[in-house]
Every structure is written in C-alpha cells, then in structure tokens.
Task: structure prediction
Amino acid sequence: MPKQLTRLIIVFLIFISLFLVVRHFLVPESFYKFGHYRADALKDNEDHQVKYIDAAMCSACHTDIDSLKVSGPHKNINCQTCHGPGYLHVEDPSKNVLIKPTERAFCGKCHSLNAARACNIIKQQDIAQHNIDNKCVECHNPHQPQP
Amino acid sequence: MKTEKDKNNSRREFLIASTAITGGIVLSTFLNPFKSIAEAKSADSTKDTIKLNDKNVSLAKDAEKWWGFGFDIEKCIGCGTCAKACKEENNVPKEPFFFRTWIEQYTEKNDGTLKVQSPNGGIDGQTQAVPSEDIFKSYFVPKTCNHCSKSPCVQVCPVGATFVSPDGVVLVDEKYCIGCGYCVQACPYGCRYIHPEKEIADKCTLCYHRINKGLQPTCVEVCPTGARTHGNLRDKKSDLVKFLKEHNCHVLKPHLNTGSKLFYNGLSEEVR
Result:
C-alpha cells in the first residue's frame, strides 16, 4: 500500500475516533433509551408540583359543605373550580385561605345568557337585567343553588 | 521506464481500491430492507423499562397506556375555568397569548359568515358579540394539544427536545430545548408557544405529573359540566373509550394524518 494512503487512513481513523469520543460526552446518558430524546425528560415532566388536589381531600374536612353540595345541582363540580387550587390550603389551612368569589361576573361566566350555551346543559340568566342591585349569592346559595 | 510503469500500476491499484470501496457502500445499501430483522432481534434485548412513579412503562408498541383526550362540544359552556386552572397548575404566564388550553367561541351568522372569538382564551368569560337575530348557530370549542402519535412538531425538532412519550403524550424536554421555535411553526393546531421567561417551547403535557399519580388532568378535574374526558385508549373500560363508544367523534384536520388523539363530539365542519 502506498505511503500516502496509509497516512490518509490513519488521519481518517484519528478523526473518526475523535468524533466518537466527543459524541460520547455530548450525548446525554438516557438519550436513545426510548427514542431520539432524553428518557430522563419523562421524569422531569412527572416531577412537577400538583396544585389542584384530589377533591376527596376537600370533603375530608368540609363535611358540612360536602353534604349540602351532594343534593344540589352543583354536586358534580369540583370545589377548586370556584375556589382555586388547594395545595397550599391543605398544608396550612389558617394561613392559606382560598378565594370565595361572589361577584356577579363570576357566576356569569357560566350562567350569563349566551347563544353558544346549550339550554339543557346550563341554566342561564341575563345578568345585565336580572336583579342587578344584588349579588347572586345573596339569593342563591352556591353550594346548593335553587332556581 | 520502470518507474513510469510502477506509477501506472499504483494508479490502477488506487482505482481498483476506490471502486471496491464505493461498490461496497452501494451494495450495503441493498441490505437496508433487512435492517428491521436485525432490529427485531436486538429489540428483545433492549426491551427496557423505566421506573416512573413505581409503575413500569415499557416501549410504545406494547405499552399498556396510550393516553388521549375527549372533548364534548355539546357540553362546553365556555366558562374558561379549564384555561384558568391550567395556567395555575402549570405556571403558564398570566398575560394573554400564552395558553396550553383555551376556548374558542364559533358563531355562524345567517349571512353565512363565521365569527371566531377567544378573548384572553376565554378565561374572563365569553360574551356573544353577534346580535342574537343574526346568529344561525353558535358553540364553544375547547382547544389544546392533540397529542398526535405522528406529531409534526416532533418531526421538526432539530435537537430531539420534543418527543412522543412511550405512553403517547407529546412532551418537551425543558433542559434540552433551544427555543428555536420550529415546533411552534409546525404545529397545525397552534398549540405551542415560546415561554417568555424560560425561552423554550411550552405546551400541554396532558398533566403528565398528574396522570401518572392517578389523578385527572387539571382541565378535566375542574370542568363544571364534564365536557372534557381523559383516559387510556388501550383500556377498554376507561372513560375515554366509553366516551368514544357513546358519541360520534372526529379529530381536527384529519387530512393532515397527524394521528391526533384529541377526539371531539359534535365537531362542526367549520372548526379548524
């Protein structure tokens, strides 16, 4: 074999092995474990904080409201739908008080008159006309609303 | 004379050698169809499992779980609780234009035109801008990532930072994403955005941190009318399979063949 070719092959081999060494250090350990991505990213995504807790934890303490709610039309609605995420509240209930929205606009998010809302799914009221001086919650208990 | 002959010989040798190498490479490409046989053999040895929250998730082909979404347009009242709760749960920037899920209000008018509105993703509640006498039909459409099994956003990622997980959820690797925004462009459903602080792509994770702990995704949990369903498509008793059995469902943009796993009941042709 000619000398030049031998040299060329040696140079090529050095380059290829150098590439493989550099690649070894640059590719993360769990890459290609399941595919063209880092398998550890699954764990990263899974480790996020759960903020909206299981609704069963609400009824564990608030039994009175729970028993009121089960007979009303709001029985299938999660407490946190109105009161917001409860993860801090369950850790220290006295310090982290949840919101109690009472504005007319809040009720209106679901119950204001809108052609896009199906009548058989949700009861609607024209909140710009209906008893405008009072808050909705003064007449309708949100935990057991009556028409 | 002799040296000249040697020279000629070496040139001949070189040509033979280079032809052999090129020919070898070309020939080896014919072996490509047999690659799957070799891989099938090695697949058994690499049938690896990862420990995810005390549950073993195996490779996609034989995974027990294949997550999907089911949205019922007939039940959606457009309250925007899902969009708001999603922002709380997943630390999505509060200002408008950054959403993992949002509600659109479609209004078909009597004159045949269509009005689509989504003020702040529907978080502050929706109001009907079209006078009622002009309305032919109106409905809400909840939108989020379709968790496509043949996902266009995954295909364009230049660094392998976004992927379909073994259980069928399209996720972003926060540590690996370079924020180039190709995936934002590629998503035909407009479900991705570049996070303004982290400067990486962000999207719905189907609440991966919740579903692997046996909880429902936040939007499903807080929906007051049960318009959202979530479940395992490979479990015949799951809520989602039940939803698909009981309703005539469609996916968005089926002609794009994205393998969408977000199924809509009551989907109108006008919805894009």
Summary: Chain B has two domains: 2-45, 67-150+203-265. Chain B touches chain A through 63 residues (CB under 8 Å). Chain B has eight helices and 13 strands. The mean pLDDT of chain B is 86.
